[in-house]
Amino acid sequence: MTTRAGFIALIGEPNAGKSTLTNRMVGAKVSIVTHKVQTTRARIRGVAMEGDSQLVFVDTPGLFKPKRRLDRAMVAAAWGGAADADVIVLLVEAHRGITEGVERILEGLSELPQGRKIALAINKIDRVDVPVLLTLTKDLNDRFPFVKTFMISAEKGKGVDDLRHWLAGEMPESPWLYPEDQIADLPLRMIAAEMTREKLTLRLHQELPYQLTVETETWEERKDGSARIDQMIYVARDGHKGIILGKKGETIKAVSKAAREELSEFLGRKVHLFLQVKVRENWLEEAERYSEMGLDFRDGNA
């Protein structure tokens, strides 16, 4: 049997649907999905099997104009993921078309070494009429020589099987890179932290989610098969701590319950989750916090 394996970088603007597509391809939730932009920080890899091919998805942070150190590190991680991949897939939202951000990404793609396999996936196709879709497809292909174009709805699964099948055929001949039943190469501690951060992001409706991070501090396997997980939520300001705790601790209780339930389902066993909140005014400038997120602190230098 000839096996194939390779890396696929999904790139695009924040909220283009990269995380949703990763999770749809893999068939499990490995990447944080929220209505907020810029929520994927680390290069989360999801692993999918298609026939004799193993597809390793590098779900990069959304590409946007960076302002802070964390932003710059995220953008560097996204382009780093693209440069290392066997195939790059650019996701563009059908209803938003060619935005200033898409223009910037197209410029970045044109600066990559020649010979890269770069495909286009127009996502959220159910939001526009066919003529709009066809015009957008032509405009994008006029601007960049994509090897293939797909029209998909990552959320509803339309066109995703065709994309997965094509990607499988484009992977280089190689032994599989991961065990067949492994769906992500992130340590479970980081996946657990991401799940809690997602619940916080969904719950908090202001700028705050970008001023916090979650770290799994301890993970204890218990004799009864359950796991005790202690996590620390770092915030930049004292006022943020009160927002996360909520009135009489209601907010953090709700977040803890939602994260615990999802973690239990993900791990297939009982989880005891304990959350604490700590103020660290300069966490955005601490190298250790970046390595916990799978980012390079040095990439954040202006």
Describe the overall structure.
The chain contains 9 helices and 9 strands. By secondary structure, it is an alpha/beta fold. Helix 6 crosses helix 8 (250-267). It is globular, with a radius of gyration of 20 Å.
What characteristics describe this protein?
302 residues, alpha/beta, Rossmann fold, GMP Synthetase, Chain A, domain 3, 2 domains, six-stranded mixed sheet, three-stranded mixed sheet, 9 helices, 23% strand, globular
Structural topology:
Elements: E1 4-12, H1 18-26, E2 44-50, E3 53-59, H2 69-84, E4 87-93, H3 100-110, E5 117-123, H4 130-143, E6 149-151, H5 160-170, H6 188-203, E7 212-221, E8 227-235, H7 238-245, H8 250-267, E9 271-279, H9 287-292
Largest sheet: 6 strands, mixed
CATH class of the largest domain: Alpha Beta
| Major beta sheet, strand line-up | 2-3-1-4-5-6
- Tell me the β content: 15-25%
What is the fourth-level CATH superfamily of the largest domain?
P-loop containing nucleotide triphosphate hydrolases
Order of helices and strands: EHEEHEHEHEHHEEHHEH
Structural class: alpha/beta
Tell me which CATH architecture of the largest domain applies here. Answer: 3-Layer(aba) Sandwich
Query: Which parts are unreliable, with pLDDT below 50 for 5 consecutive residues or more?
Result: 32-42
Termini, distance in Å?
Answer: 49 Å
By DSSP, the count of extended strands is 9
Total helices: the number is: 9
Average of the residue pLDDT scores: 80
Principal-axes geometry comes out as globular
Rg, Cα atoms, Å: 20 Å
Helical coverage, percent range: 25-40%
At CATH level 3, the topology of the largest domain is Rossmann fold
User: How many distinct folded domains?
Assistant: 2
